[in-house]
Amino acid sequence: MSDKMFGDAVPDRLDRLLHETADNALRFLGGLNDRAAAVVPSPVLTKGPLPEEGVGLDGAMAQYQAEIEPYLSASAGSRYFGFVTGGVTPAALVGDWLASAVDQNPPNPGESIAPSVTDATIGQLLDLFDLPREQFDGCFTTGATAANFLSLIAAREWWADKLGVDVTGDGMAALPDLKIFSACPHSSMVKVMGLSGVGRNALVPVDQLPQSEAMDPEALDKALLESDASAKIVVASAGTVTATDFDDLNRIADICASHDAWLHVDGAFGLFARCLPEMAGRVAGIERADSITADFHKWLNVPYDCGLFLTRHVEALEKANAMDVAYLKIEGEAPTYMNRSLENSQRFRALPVWMTLQAYGRDGVRDVVRRNCSFAAKLADWIEQAEGFELLTPVKLNVVCFRALFDTDDQDAANKAFLQTLNEAGSIFCTPGALFGKAGVRAAISNWRTTEDDLPVTFKALEEAHAATAQGLK
Ligand SMILES: *Cc1c(COP(=O)(O)O)cnc(C)c1O
Description:
This protein has helices at about 1-10, 10-30, 55-70, 90-100, 115-130, 145-165, 165-170, 185-195, 215-225, 250-260, 315-320, 350-385, 410-425, 455-474; strands at about 135-140, 180, 205, 230-235, 260-265, 290-295, 305-310, 390, 400-405, 430-435, 440-445. The protein is an alpha/beta fold. It is globular.
């Protein structure tokens, strides 16, 4: 094996292999438009035995090209509208390739510039989202789920400190009546309530406003008033995942202040509305939050996996994550990021983000967000006018939630069939959505490559899937 490995590392050979890989990646990216947006149903890779002797990198590449590459989705392409899925800009790709090549481990300062790059990048991100640098700090995470996890870890530490108990030492037994108040928590938030030991049953559901996923502030006020919990965390949304509703963060921040509650805002993708002057109002008040979640493998269009956790109580985060062992202690100017998050070792996640911000600046990020929102608005206009479709909620950002209408008593089942037909056809990919008791389809537009040229293809795909589904119902 080592013969093969070291053979690969010979400069001439490595040069050829990396150039061939670049050619391969370019072919893949150049072919995105001709590739199925998603491979439905998905094929499975034969579970072969572990090779005793490797076939060498050329052999492995040949295997990849034969057995894996043909069945990959065009999730990096312009017509993959599932979940909230960003693509990869050229600058982010370059940054990510370099992160792999240079293979730094930035959580410990004092042995390279990598932690300081992380620190500087977080500063520029605060500028991007118009958040005060002197009040917020945090760390990169694997995504919004991990950032939401850290929000609970920081908040419970902050509460323990206030109440004079030791939650890091004694666990949640020290804070038995911590409650979470939320109207539309993302499923990942519910998950991390379980993982953190806070418990999924600590959730106090708060009413939503009529025909909206946003929190009813009066209901929150009442719920906090009536609760005798000694530690309270409010989880607000800056962009719910289906209706893209924004909680009224200024009112909620007032209410949190009057009831002494920690305010966490999950802005995984909705935070990007703050980049646009015409939309920033929806996220007004987020600067008053105790903690914030953002995702970058979504709307910033960097590769998986990358998110950000921000808090104005970084000392609570560091107290909860601190380790005190001799072999990890290297002093330096930048923060010790391993004392801010779960992972001790970390990818140089800041580099693709830094490269993106330097290459495209605030304008570049704005441009993608604006174009995606305008695409969503045009798609929604078409749906409103087209026969056989209805919107389930007005479009407010980059997500269109709608359903197809059929001559049937069971629109929900027909929409399930419609979505399957649509996705199998492969020219666009959408995921299921349900709003206000109606099942339908969600299209989330978050890829930098998506342009108005994708509109006619999208309309045609919807029309054809509608006709095919209607035919099947006869
Ligand atoms: C996507 C999303 C998450 C989870 O993010 P991951 O990056 O998949 O971990 C959490 N909250 C909201 C609002 C989201 O949109």
